[in-house]
Structures are given as C-alpha cells and as structure tokens.
From TrEMBL:
Family: Belongs to the KHG/KDPG aldolase family.
InterPro entries noted in UniProt: Aldlse_KDPG_KHG (IPR000887), Aldolase_TIM (IPR013785)
Key word Transcription regulation present: no
Source species: Chitinophaga fulva
Assembly, per entry: Homotrimer.
Protein name, as recorded: Bifunctional 4-hydroxy-2-oxoglutarate aldolase/2-dehydro-3-deoxy-phosphogluconate aldolase
Amino acid sequence: MAPHPETIIAAFEQSGIIPVFYHDDADVCCEVLQACYDGGLRVFEFTSRGAQAQPNFSRLLELKRAKMPDLYLGIGTIKDAAAAAAYTQLGADFIVCPITDPETGAYCRSQQILWIPGCMTPTEIAVAEKNEARLVKLFPGNVLGPAYVKAIKPLFPNLKFMPTGGVEPTRVSMDTWFDAGVVCVGMGSNLLAKSLIDSRDWASLKEKIMQTFAFLDDNA
C-alpha cells in the first residue's frame, strides 16, 4: 500500500523541487533518478508519456526498493482512473494528473493514494477541492505565472499549490514562485537538461540539482 497522502504532501513540501521526467531508455531513466537522489531530492515524478512508460516505471521501482528506501516515486500524466489503477498496482506512491478528473480522484481516495489533479482555472481548482484534493498542480505554469498564484490563494486557503512548467532552476525564478505562495515546484527539462542527458553527463546533472536545491535553502 502507498504511504499516507499526508506523508507524501509533507515530503513534497520538504523537497520543494519535484523532478518530472520520461525517457524511452530504462537505463537513462535509472541514471536520472540516481542523479536526482544523489543530488538530495526525495520525491520523483515519472511521466506516462511513451510506449515504455510502464516497464520503465517498473525498473525505477526496482531501483528505489533496492537503494532508495526514503524516496517517494510517483507517476504523472495520468488522465483516467484505469491508468491510475495500473500504476497503483505496480507500486506508485502518488498520482499526478494534467487535468481534474473526478473519477480518478475517487479511485485514488478508494486506494488511499495521493491524487494531485492538474488545474488551470478557478473552476477547475474548485472541482478539485470538492473532490478532496489537498495539493493541486497548476498547469501550465509558464502560462499562469506567479501572479496567478497570488490571486487565487485567498480563494482556496485550504489548498496547497505546485506549478509545473515555467519554473527555472535560478534563484530569481524560485524565489518569485515561493514568495507567491506555492509549496513546491515541478521541473522537467529546465532542471533535467536534455544536453546533459544526451551526453550521459550524470555528474553534471547531479551538480545542477544540488545547485538548484541550494536556492531553496537560501530562500528558506
């Protein structure tokens, strides 16, 4: 059974940075996960965006269980309850969606697994809240921006927010988002640079993650 949702929300807040990643090559996926872990991150979102998503996620779970007992490994880009069920059965710790689908939320509640719906409008956020979401993914973050967070937070005082997209691994970008009131940020290619992955430069990827983590420490 997955850890309690509140435990994982606390881990999201403590981590501050949630790497978001997919690759067709399982070995690359494992190296990226290892670099993130070695760089200090303890939450990782793999995305269901390709033909190899399920077998590669299974490989990541094997690595987590063998070497990373304190890591929370979840699955993203989940758009329906059937996909949520498939990954829950594999062993996902949490479910992240690009949309707000009440059926997926109901399934996750039935399994006591954290459901993080994706929202863009106040109406979608209200639907997520009505369906007992506690942490909401603001997507796409590059379209919404930090000012949007400041505008909506007073309307939803009991919700926590995580933007994905549009967050850069710089002190200025991170400070702007966290000052607006988010509890963590999702980062894909801005953090997990394609150039480093293509060149298999895992040491530099780890260093970049550590540097980005340091911006959070400075902000704290």
